[in-house]
Amino acid sequence: MTQAPDNSTTAETALGDASDEIKLAVDLIYLLESHEIEPDVALAALEIVRQDLQRKLSKNNS
Questions:
Q1: What three-state secondary structure class fits 40?
Q2: pTM of the model
């Protein structure tokens, strides 16, 4: 009898080959979902993070 493939292992392998941006996005989604953060709160927080990172990029490019 053959065993069905382990989907978590398959997902980990696929994620291991993913870009850093995808890995970070998956981690952030997991963090938000596991802490049951409401989508509107998450989006507001992500906008704050985006503005902070944009400010840092602008400062580094000056």
A1: helix
A2: 0.69
pLDDT of residue 16: 87
Spans of all domains in the chain: 8-61
DSSP per position, 39-60: HHHHHHHHHHHHHHHHHHHHHH
Amino acid type, 28: L
In whole angstroms, give the CA distance from residue 37 to residue 44: 11
Distances (CA, A) of 13 to 3, 8, 9, 18, 43: 18, 9, 6, 9, 29
Quick one: tokens of 42? 């998450």
15-57 pLDDT per residue, tens: 889 999 999 999 999 999 999 999 999 999 999 999 999 999 9
For residue 3, the 8-state DSSP code is: P
